[in-house]
Amino acid sequence: MTFLTAQWIDEWFQAERASIEGFDGVFAEPLLLGFGDPFLVCCVHGGKYNFNIAMRCGWTKMVNGTKTVIAKSCEDPSSRIMWDGLHFTEVANRWIYNQIADGAYSDPPIPLKTACHRMI
């Protein structure tokens, strides 16, 4: 049986906090990062922010006897943070990863490529 040490738990929470802070960062200054409205969803249909849990991405409806896709992707997914109201777009995920990989959310701020080569 494996027991979690206090040090491991502390390190896990620190890593989790860095991840959460990365998500906050993308919402803090969306226009400076090239995004539009941070809450407007790319691939859903309806609702205030283009989000309706009942009409998720790819949702279809019969129109005049033809199955038609109602919930389509937005024209430029790279301008949105949220893909479907539950997941980030590829561009938002890339931005968050780059912040973590560059060490922006590490203490001390050490890029992953450097930290992974350090001797313990």
Automatic annotation (TrEMBL):
EC number: 3.2.1.51
Keywords: Glycosidase, Hydrolase
GO MF terms held by the record: alpha-L-fucosidase activity
Class of the enzyme per the UniProt entry, highest EC level: hydrolase
PANTHER family found in the cross-reference section: GDSL-LIKE LIPASE_ACYLHYDROLASE, ZINC FINGER FYVE DOMAIN CONTAINING PROTEIN
Family stated for the protein in its record: Belongs to the 'GDSL' lipolytic enzyme family.
Record's protein name: Alpha-L-fucosidase
Species name: Helianthus annuus (Common sunflower)
